[in-house]
Design a protein that fits this description.
- It is a single chain.
- Helix 1 crosses helix 4, helix 1 packs antiparallel against helix 11 and helix 7 runs antiparallel to helix 10.
- The termini are close together.
- This protein has 320 residues and is mostly helical.
- Strand 1 and strand 2 form a beta hairpin.
- The chain contains 11 helices and 2 strands.
- The protein has one domain.
- The protein has a two-stranded antiparallel sheet with strand order 1-2.
- The longest helix has 48 residues.
- InterPro entries: Cobalamin_biosynth_CobD/CbiB.
- GO terms for molecular function: ABC-type vitamin B12 transporter activity; threonine-phosphate decarboxylase activity.
Length: 320
């Protein structure tokens, strides 16, 4: 039951306190490592640059996995109550740093607060820190759409993805997932600077997100039913529009969210998801947050915990 308690504790801790300051966050430490080592992968030869990016990605992920594995392995030698409790508390804190339910709410809330004060320029600036698009010319509707899009997309990156891989591989799984995700967010750009260096990290992120994104989409449909949103619209839009984004995974939860809220997400010159209102507002944002939180809790209860119990039964989780 320890892994189950770790998951529940991490979710509750995140909902209560959110993220620690950046300099204390393990993801920030990983980002620092990536920033320091990626320049060594640069080369005039595109193939060598891809190889360099691959080596950096595997090396950093390997170090992270080893540290977490030996942490878990070390705790096997302690069976007294105090040691087990200490292990559980540290594990809860560590797993919590890989998820960001409250963080998703807070980041979007800052943009919406700017809009509520009719400060569109500030809202654009705040949104630019959340999305990979040029926000300088976006109107109010597209700013709100951007908030709703990033909230729904990051349900996978920031919550259900880490929980899925914790369910399979424990803390090493959750942290390796977040490491790959961090590398992709830093270097997974299709431009002249990162196209080759970030190639391996970006494609690794796509592979790792493939299953969690699709499970999350269906869990979101169930969440929509439970909170009184349009679950039929969520299911229909996820199936019809989920593949319209350049990412094979991001469109799944985004389309499900758009359908559930009865709105339309639009990234100019890239995609349109859903066929509802083109004027999303504060009400849509509040509904999106409720749907996001419900989806995360359901995923924990319907996917992560059953995975842990099943794999514990067959002996996979015996090391924890």
């Amino acid at each position: 039951m320890i892994p189950v308690l770790i998951v529940v504790g991490a979710i509750l801790l995140d909902l209560a306190f959110g993220d620690p300051r950046s300099k204390y966050h393990p993801t920030a430490w990983v980002g620092t490592l990536v920033a320091r080592f990626l320049p060594f992968a640069r080369s005039q030869n595109p193939t060598m640059e891809k190889m360099g990016g691959m080596i950096v990605t595997i090396a950093i992920s390997g170090v992270v996995a080893a540290l977490l594995y030996y942490f878990e392995f070390f705790t096997l030698h302690f069976t007294d109550v105090i040691s087990v409790m200490a292990f559980g508390i540290i594990s809860i804190i560590l797993l919590k740093t890989t998820i960001a339910i409250r963080g998703l709410e807070q980041h979007g809330k800052m943009v919406m607060e700017s809009l509520s004060r009719d400060n569109l320029d500030e809202a654009r600036d705040r949104l630019s820190m959340l999305v990979k698009r040029n926000t300088k010319q976006l109107d109010k509707n597209h700013v709100v759409s951007g908030v709703l899009e990033t909230t729904s997309e990051n349900i996978v990156d920031g919550v259900t993805g880490p929980l899925f891989y914790f369910g399979l591989f424990g803390l090493p799984g959750a942290f390796v997932y977040r490491t790959i995700n961090t590398i992709d967010s830093m270097a997974g750009y299709k431009n002249t600077i990162f196209a080759n260096i970030g190639w391996f990290g970006a494609n690794s992120d796509k592979v790792l997100n493939y299953v969690p994104a699709r499970i999350t989409g269906y869990v979101m449909v169930l969440a929509a039913f439970l909170v009184g949103a349009d679950w039929k619209g969520a299911l229909y839009t996820m199936k019809s529009d989920g593949k319209k984004t350049s990412s094979p995974n991001a469109g799944i939860p985004m389309a499900a969210m758009a359908g559930a809220l009865g709105t339309r997400f639009e990234k100019l010159d890239h995609y349109t998801l859903g066929n509802g209102t083109i004027e999303p507002d504060q009400t849509h944002y509040k509904s999106a947050i409720l749907l996001m939180k419900t989806t995360c809790v359901l995923f924990c209860g319907l996917v992560t915990i059953p995975l842990i119990i099943l794999l514990s039964y067959v002996g996979w989780w015996i090391h924890v």
